[in-house]
Design brief:
The chain has 591 residues and is mostly beta strands. It folds into six domains: 26-131, no CATH class; 138-216, Transthyretin/hydroxyisourate hydrolase domain (Immunoglobulin-like, Sandwich); 221-287, Sandwich (Immunoglobulin-like), CATH 2.60.40; 290-355, Immunoglobulins (Immunoglobulin-like); 359-422, Carboxypeptidase-like, regulatory domain (Immunoglobulin-like), CATH 2.60.40.1120; 432-590, Porin. It has five helices and 49 strands. It has an eight-stranded antiparallel beta barrel. It has a five-stranded mixed beta sheet with strand order 1-8-2-5-4, with no helix packed on it. A hairpin with a 2-residue loop joins strand 40 (446-455) and strand 41.
Length: 591
């Protein structure tokens, strides 16, 4: 029986034998000789079983890409070892070797090659091989796998000795993959997700031919739809695949399917999937985790809302609320609403007792309108405002530009549906500029103008006064001549500083100190004096940008030139121009 099987195998392989025979290539030993200068046997000494050192034959090839490890050596029962060393093959050989047999897959072997000498222990030898590339004949191999959508991977294995399984390729969208490979006998395995593996055997024996291997895969899956309800997460083998519903292909087998939902107990089912059995599976829904909320209020009869949903009026037990935080709103007409958060625990009752305060719907108005409203320090908006406030005392504050701030503590209840507040106009401000037309009476009568301003209360002002009163002075420029008549008047200019105090809505008092110059000049006379002054500027705002001022002040000369001294000695009027009491009345515009 065994012989018959062997004969059948030979018959099957017979067509391929000519092709296989043509693939054999040759190699030969170009040279072999002892290298007396190589000390490798001493530095890399190895001993045989009798304690004698091995000789080393260093084998090299004329082809730098040659795989030296593919060569096998036989020294006719004399022991030897083989090691790869940096592009060389070191063959450790026992003493007395005279012949060698060398073989390699796909090549003609060298039989009983005479080394021409006897190998001596501890010596080094060089061997050079010359190898020709083998003749490799190929054939196009194409796999056509159905269904094309399987995206199959093909693994092939040559039947040559020592050959390893290799990846032939992955099929395209059309289900095909092709490569040009060496002639020979191959086995293959087609692997695809959710399909059974398919195996086969191929003989390639036609040089430059084209072989198409058709493979039809048998499915190992079913198209399954899971339904779990809205908001329920579906997990297959602990991996989330969808919410509410999921459909897809599953390989035949047993799966752990879990339904999860917040604040619910998860449900796990073991579901067996068979191949070619498409179906819809209704999953068990998770079980709610609930508790009870007991709601009461003072007074009773208040409306209840939980998370925006109506639940009737107090008192009431609300059952089957999901565990976790919930927003509870209690409201009743003419009472303030109360919003709170409760925590529901599984199979427990949570109490919610609420006291409601009476509220009044209040219209808050002001004169003038559009004043900024603050209640208990909180910015509300501009008047008028319509609000619901709990009964009780509140601090009201209103502000508006160019008006005094208004503050008042008021009791609010349902009996006061409207609150009206009046703001007083603030005419005087701490920072303002002004221009003034003025008249002055006193020791120096005149008219003039002022310009100044306030910066956070600090005052600076410049002024000019033209004297209206004339003085006649006769001056004798030459002894014995008739004196000349001179008509004199004065002008005064200078500056002041001070600090203003706002009194109420319309008034301001500003103590001032200043310095100025009084100048007298005619065709023949020119004179001046430097003066200092102290006074009190009194302002009254008449309209929005118009005011009246009265400034009583006293001035005195601090420096006089020679002519001025002579003039005031003969004229009491001119003496008053340099010092005395004055009062200035002005009409000013401020901005």
């Amino acid at each position: 029986m065994k012989n018959i099987r062997t004969l059948l195998m030979l018959l099957l392989l017979l067509p391929a034998l000519p092709a296989f025979a043509q693939q054999k290539a040759k190699f030969q030993i170009v040279s072999f000789a002892e290298n007396p200068h190589d000390m490798s046997p001493k530095t890399h000494e190895k001993l045989d079983r009798d304690g004698h050192p091995y000789a080393i034959i260093k084998v090299k090839s004329n082809n730098p890409d040659d795989d030296l490890s593919a060569y096998s050596f036989d020294f006719e029962h004399i022991p030897h070892l083989v090691e790869a060393k940096d592009g060389e093959l070191w063959v450790y050989v026992g003493r007395n070797a005279m012949y060698v047999n060398i073989s390699r897959d796909g090549y003609h072997s060298i039989k009983r090659y005479d080394l021409g000498l006897t190998i001596q222990p501890g010596r080094a030898y060089d061997m050079r091989l010359s190898v020709e590339a083998p003749n490799v004949f190929r054939q196009m191999l194409e796999f056509n796998v159905q269904p094309a959508s399987a995206k199959a991977t093909i693994m092939i294995n040559s039947q040559k000795q020592g050959a390893q399984m290799e990846n032939f390729g992955t099929t395209s969208e059309l289900g095909s993959v092709a490569r040009n490979i060496e002639l020979g006998v191959y086995t293959y395995t087609v692997v695809a997700d959710k399909y059974h593996n398919s195996e086969g055997r191929i003989v390639l024996d036609k040089r430059n031919g084209h072989h198409v291997e058709k493979v039809t895969l048998r499915p190992n899956f079913s198209h399954i739809t899971f339904k779990a309800g809205e908001g329920t997460d579906i997990y297959i083998n602990d991996e989330k695949v969808g919410t509410g519903t999921w459909n897809g292909d599953l390989k035949a087998g047993v799966y752990s399917v879990e339904c999860r939902k917040p604040k619910h107990k998860s449900v796990v089912e073991m579901i067996k999937i068979e191949e070619n059995n498409d179906r819809v599976i209704e999953l068990r829904t998770p079980v709610p985790q609930t508790g009870v909320l007991a709601v009461t209020s003072n007074p009773l009869g208040a409306k209840i809302k939980v998370d925006g949903k109506d639940y009737g009026v107090t008192p009431k037990n609300i059952v089957d609320l999901l565990i976790g935080s919930h927003k509870v709103e209690i409201s009743k007409k003419n009472y303030s609403s109360v919003v709170t958060t409760v925590e529901i625990r599984e199979d427990e009752t949570t109490e919610c007792d609420t006291k409601l305060n009476k509220v009044a719907k209040v219209t808050i108005n002001s004169r003038p309108k559009e004043a900024q409203l603050y209640i208990d320090g909180k910015k509300i908006g501009t008047t008028p405002q319509i609000m619901e406030l709990e009964s009780g005392y509140y601090n009201f504050r209103l502000t508006k530009e160019r008006y005094h701030d208004f503050e008042k503590r008021v009791h609010v209840d349902i009996s006061k549906p409207e609150l009206k507040f009046s703001l007083k106009r603030q005419f005087q401000k701490k920072s303002v500029g002004y221009i003034e037309a003025a008249a002055q009476v006193g020791s120096l009568m005149g008219v003039g103008a002022n310009a100044g301003g306030y910066i956070k209360g600090f005052n600076i002002e410049g002024y000019y006064i033209y004297g209206l009163k004339e003085e006649i002075v006769y001056v004798d420029y030459a002894n014995g001549s008739i004196p000349d008549k001179n008509s004199l008047n004065a002008m005064c200019f200078g500056g002041k500083v001070g600090y203003g105090f706002v009194l109420g809505t319309r008034f301001r008092l500003t103590p001032q100190v200043g310095a100025g110059v009084v100048s007298i000049s005619t065709n023949n006379i020119s004179s001046s004096a430097v003066t200092a002054s102290a006074g009190l500027r009194c302002e009254c705002a008449l309209l929005g940008n118009l005011g009246l001022s009265v400034t009583p002040e006293y001035s005195f000369a601090v420096s006089k030139n020679r002519v001025f001294k002579k003039l005031e000695a003969v004229s009491p009027g001119i003496k008053g121009w340099g010092g005395g009491f004055n009062a200035r009345v002005g009409l000013y515009v401020y901005f």
